[in-house]
């Protein structure tokens, strides 16, 4: 049997690119840093990192990669988005800045900065039924929440107050927190399973 490492891009305009690169490399992926449209060619999957969605949005337009990225996502490219990356995956945005756009794909309304500013950052242990035991240690850093999900999307986990903080839809997986910064690899593994199957 011949197995080749999946080629996984990380959108590297801004944000916590290195943390994702480390986890993906550990899990056997061949990581490519993506800034320009041509760098999307031949990718088996893409990660949209945490960072600042307003900045990533603006830079994606400046680099001319917004449209090709939208087309790649709409065409079925497996994508993992964390925090700002979840915001960028959402079809609908609440509390965006004026003129802020997303790449879309995930039939969801995502609210930016749902918990307030940096000082309101926190960690929580979450049950994620599709991942099984143990619970997920989740770091929320100026994190968004998923306010509404369309029929094609499925909630994967929620805070004790019921607010949804991870969801998936087909090849798209969006997480409001930062698994890449708490040694939690199961979301990346789930994403890579999608990548290998796609
Ligand atoms: N609040 C940030 C935004 O709007 C997201 C924060 C994060 O990715 N840690 O993009």
Describe it.
With 198 residues, this protein is α/β, with parallel strands linked by helices. It has one domain: Rossmann fold (3-Layer(aba) Sandwich). The strands form 3 sheets. The chain has a 7-stranded mixed β-sheet with strand order 2-1-3-4-12-11-10. Helix 1 links the parallel strand 1 and strand 2. The site of glutamine (GLN) has 11 residues, from helix 4.
| Small molecules (ligands, ions, cofactors) in the structure | glutamine
Q: Provide the number of structural domains.
A: 1
Percent of residues in helices: 10-25%
Radius of gyration: 15 Å
Going across the major beta sheet, what is the strand order?
Answer: 2-1-3-4-12-11-10
Beta-strand residue percentage: 25-35%
Corresponding CATH superfamily? Class I glutamine amidotransferase (GATase) domain
Class from secondary-structure proportions: alpha/beta
Order of helices and strands: EHEEHHEHEEEEEEEEH
According to CATH, what is the class?
A: Alpha Beta
What topology emerges from the helices and strands here?
Layout lengths: L6 E5 L5 H10 L3 E5 L10 E4 L4 H10 L3 H9 L4 E4 L1 H6 E5 L11 E6 L10 E5 L9 E5 L4 E5 L4 E5 L5 E6 L2 E4 L10 H12 L1
Parallel strand pairs: 1-2, 1-3, 3-4, 4-12, 5-6
Antiparallel strand pairs: 6-9, 7-8, 10-11, 11-12
This protein binds glutamine.
Glutamine binds next to helix 4.
Write a brief caption for the model.
With 198 residues, the chain is of the alpha/beta class. Helices cover 24% and strands 30% of the residues. The chain has a single domain, classed as Class I glutamine amidotransferase (GATase) domain (Rossmann fold, 3-Layer(aba) Sandwich).
């Amino acid at each position: 049997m011949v197995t080749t490492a999946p080629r996984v891009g990380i959108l590297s305009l801004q944000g916590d690119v290195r943390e994702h690169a480390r986890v993906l490399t550990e899990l056997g992926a061949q990581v490519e840093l993506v800034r320009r449209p041509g760098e999307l060619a031949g990718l088996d999957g893409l990660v949209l990192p945490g960072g600042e969605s307003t900045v990533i949005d603006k830079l994606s337009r400046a680099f001319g990669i917004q449209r090709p990225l939208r087309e790649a996502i709409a065409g079925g490219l497996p994508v993992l988005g964390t925090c700002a990356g979840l915001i960028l995956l959402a079809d609908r945005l609440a509390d965006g800045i004026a003129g802020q756009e997303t790449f879309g794909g995930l039939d969801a309304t995502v609210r930016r900065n749902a918990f307030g500013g940096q000082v309101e950052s926190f960690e929580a242990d979450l049950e994620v039924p599709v991942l099984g035991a143990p619970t997920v240690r989740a770091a929320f850093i100026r994190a968004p929440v998923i306010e509404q999900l369309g029929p094609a999307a499925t909630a994967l986990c929620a805070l004790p107050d019921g607010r949804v903080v991870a969801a998936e839809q087909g090849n798209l997986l969006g997480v409001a927190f930062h698994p890449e910064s708490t040694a939690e690899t199961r979301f990346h593994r789930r994403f890579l399973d999608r990548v290998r199957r796609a």
